[in-house]
Amino acid sequence: MASRKILLMALGFSLGFDSIAAAGNPFNDVTKGHWAYDAVAELAAAGIIEGYGDASFAGERLLTRYEMAQLIARAMAKAAPEEKLAAEFREELNQLGVRVAALEERSDNLKVSGYIKSRNWSYHGTHRDYRGTNHRHEIRTDLRFTGRINDNWSYVGIVRNEQKLTGKDSSGNSYKNAGEEDSKFIEASIRGRIGGVKVVAGRIYVNMESGDIFEDRLDGIRVDYGKKYRFRGGYGLLSDYYYGYKAYSYNMEKQKYSMLKAGGDDGAKWAYGRFDAKVGTIGTHIGYYHFDSMSPLNTESNILALGANIPLSKQLELVGTYYRTNADHYVLKVTKLTPTATYGDQNPAPYSLNQRVRNDGFTMSLKYRKADAQKAGSYGLQLQYLDMPAGAILYHTSNTDMPSSLYGNSLDGKVAEPDGFRGWRCVGSWAVAKNILFTTEYCSFKGATHDRHYDSIYTELRFNF
Fold it and tell me: Which residues are within 8 A (CB) of 124 and not within 5 positions of it... i.e. 6 or more apart?
């Protein structure tokens, strides 16, 4: 709280009282010889300040926030330009390192934020690459640069550094990528509005069905319009951002995988549209997702999703989604691989044996509360059961080396399950302190047409800045 006398001197300058009139003093505790006598008398005469019921001014008393608000309101009513106050005290403000916004043409238009996090995996399963138990550890840093283009448009760029630290498999051998370090520009986009439509274009973040179908970066454009009735859509090409790994598509006639081309006229295309509507307190949506030449089923994947979000209480929500794909048009006929076989350009085939794949499935989740990195002590829990059909999983959001129905053992370690998979996923997050978030995730998945299973525990400690 400021001293009343100091504040009143500032108000006097801002109101432009170049000369002090010989106004009468209405306060019995401000003597004529006091250094602030003239200012107090002038402001009282202007109706800016008032005394207390006993006709006192109480000049040594501290102002409350309510009194400050009242003084400012009265001063503003006198139509005093804020520039006068800023100009009068420019030197003092500059000495304090304060920038006077009213006197600057524009503020700095580049902001930097990001995070650093420690990531740890522990696996147990019967897949040939993860027999028994193994683990690995890495450090990831993301730097996000946001630049203001104008009032409606901005630029976002994200640089990611990953340090893959030493890990061990069940035989005591070092993790195959231990000691590697890599830095990449993973996102570069412009974003803004065209009328009421939000637009993001470039190398962009794409999340399809809360990551159950896809969560990663792609090249293209996405749009978002509406609130109660909301439409979201996107279109683009498979980017070659994927850490330099190869992506494969399975050819049914030749019964072998071929490497996908990224970008250009021959690039694999993706597109989606989703419509959300609120029915009372229940959220509903329908989504359609298309991936051209990005499926192990043949040349394309078409996925229909129908979902609902049902609030069970203020903190508890039930979320369910039904999926149907075009996988029923195909029968996978490939040779079973032995546990010693390796993926490569020749024939990184799955274990499917002359089986007609399943084309529909569902997910069901219970979500309790939500962790907010800005609120220390907040937390969130999610329990999810997944029964995903063939062709519906392009790059799943789970922090495990499975599942993916596209990329084989080539993209970020994910293991191919083109027939689909089922299993449980449990995620818990806790804000240890402001901007410090701890997350743990347990996954237990099994392929839809075989007995291989994948169990993993993932932990993450994230520091936002």
Answer: 130, 132, 133, 455, 456
Other beta carbons within 10 Å of 213: 28
- Could you give the count of Cα atoms lying within 13 Å of 89 in the half-sphere of its Cβ? 19
Q: How far is CA 99 from CA 80, 87, 108, 310, 461, in A?
A: 20, 12, 11, 48, 36
pLDDT surpassing 50 at residue 275? yes
**Helix crossing, 4-14 with 65-77: angle to 10°?**
20
Burial of 438 (0-12, 13-18, 19+ CB in 10 A): middle
* Structural element, H or E, at residue 5: helix 4-14
Nearest alpha carbon to residue 238 among 208, 217, 210: 217
* pLDDT tens for each residue of 61-103: 777 777 777 777 777 666 455 566 666 666 665 665 555 454 4
Cα torsion 63, 67, 71, 72 to 10°: value is: 90
The one-letter amino acid at 64: T
**Residues 291-322: pLDDT tens digits?**
875 444 445 788 999 999 999 999 999 999 99
- For the chain, the C-alpha Rg in angstroms (whole number) is 32
Q: Give me the residue spans of the domains in the chain.
A: 4-103, 110-138+169-176+231-464
